[in-house]
Amino acid sequence: MNPDVYREIKRRILFLEYAPGQILNENVLAKEFGVSRTPMREVLYRLSWEQLARIIARTGTMVTQIEFQTMMHTYQTRLGIEGEVGRLCAELATDDHLEAIRGIREDCELLTGHKAPDSLVEIDRRLRQIVHDATGNPILQSVSDHLYTLTFRLWYVTLDKGDWQQEVREMLDEIEATLAGMQARDGMETARVRRDALVRHFDRIRAKYLRVPGEVKL
Prior knowledge:
Strand order of the largest sheet: 1-3-2
């Protein structure tokens, strides 16, 4: 499989450049990327395995739809995973991890008066990368990243809606609470912080996507 082609097509799917339900033509893509059909087919099968695309016989490869019920089930699963990430990162974090998170906090503060969804996504990615690295557990990171990828499009499609300042404040709160828990080496508290941040994140998405009342919990 060609990793560069894979990363680019996956990026286009996640950032909605390929719309949910869109058919991806293997021949057209192979020509665009200057590769043969075999490596392109391998990329599409990998994306199918990751549940970002679906192979349809005699039709092609379709970008999977954003199905809210599936997203809810995925978020429910993420709760347990993120709690374990929080526990381990607090217990094993180094001073370098803490300093890196302080840098992310400073960068996030700059977005308070500047609406830039892709920049907020990048800050979220950096925070996740650091807490994952702090866990020292690549299997946990892999599972967490896969579940995050499945729900990313739902977040991205709603990120530009609603109160931008609230989105930035929530991210700052998550960064600061995570940092405080890691500095205290409090695994249980940091696990709670990571789970609570995810619940609030899902509640905001649900309110914007479906206008579902906050009382309806995960």
